[in-house]
Structure formats: structure tokens, C-alpha cells
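Kindly inspect this chain:
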Amino acid sequence: MSQFSQVPSARPMAVQPGEAMPVRCEFFGDELDAMGFFDPTTQRRTENTEQALLLPVAESLPSLHPEGVDGLCRELQSIIARQRRRKAPHENLITTLTRDIESLQSGVSFPSADRYLALIYPEFSCAADYLSTETTVYFCDHGALARAARHAARMAVRSFSMRPL
């Protein structure tokens, strides 16, 4: 299980999936200065590393709703109101939304907040949205490469066997 914590010296620590030791990221201001594995018992660095995989604990942060948590709660209350106006309101949905509103208002985080992604982030983005227009991206489809290599080999064999001696 991945964890992230902030220590007083502003040096975040993260446990990478598949790694036995956590990684300490040391910053100089807001610039990453050094990274390395460390022993949590002694707090001593055991090995430097050039890369670390940091995964989000959740896909959504309700506070990033365009109007904050209060705005998200208003939208959820609006959904409840629409449900109650229906001929056959979905009571389980109303109960779930009500519980989620209470959790949000009390500041309790809950893993199911991801179900509100479309409300929290009205405009979706991906990693490509952060690339400059001058960036060249190469995609490698290993399956297609393997198929093309097999085809080229068959063609070479066929071409070679058709040559007169």
C-alpha cells in the first residue's frame, strides 16, 4: 500500500509500489534537489535514485471543484432535489448522496469521492495537455512491431527462396 506523509523539514516520503524501502524527496524551495531510498527505522539514506513512481491516493479531490467543497455539496443537493421530484425517486441514491454531503461538510475524506469526477473536474485533461506544441511523442506498439518483424522475416525468406541459384 502506498503512503505519503509530510515531515517537518518539508521532505515528503513515499513508499513506491513494489519497493521494499520508501523514497525521500528532498526539495530546495519548490525544486527537487535529491531523491533516495531510506531506512524508516534509522531515517538514513540507503541508496540514491533518479526516479520514483508516486501514485495518487485518489483520483479526485473534492476541494478542487470550481466552487470548492461547498459548490460540490450544492450540486449534490441539486441532484437529490431532482430525484425527489421524480415519480419514483431512487431512495438508495438519495441516501448515498446525503451521506456523502455530510462527509464532505464534516471534512471527512472518503474513497468513493471518485464517483463525482465529472462534477469536480468539469473539463477533463490528460498528460498530453501539459506538453508544449514543440514536443515530439513516440508511441511504441510492441505487438505491431513484432508482427511487422515476423512479416519482414517471412518476406525475406520468400524473397531469398525465389532467387535463382
